[in-house]
Amino acid sequence: MIAIHDPPQPPLTAPGLTTRAQTLPDHISPSAAKCYLGCPLKFYFERVARIRKNTPVALHLGKAVHAALQAFHIARWRGTDDTPETIAAAFDQAFTALERDEGPVNFEDEEDRGKARLDGLRVVAAYLDSPEAMKEKPRAVEVLLKENVPGLSVPLTGAMDLVEGNFTPVDFKSAAAKPDKANAVFDHEIQLVSYQLLMEIATGQVPSSLDLVFLVKTKTPQVIRVSSPPAGEHRKRRVIALLETAVQGIAARRYHPQPGMQCSWCQYKNECMAWLPGQVLTERRAA
Question: What's the whole-model pTM score?
Answer without folding.
Answer: 0.85
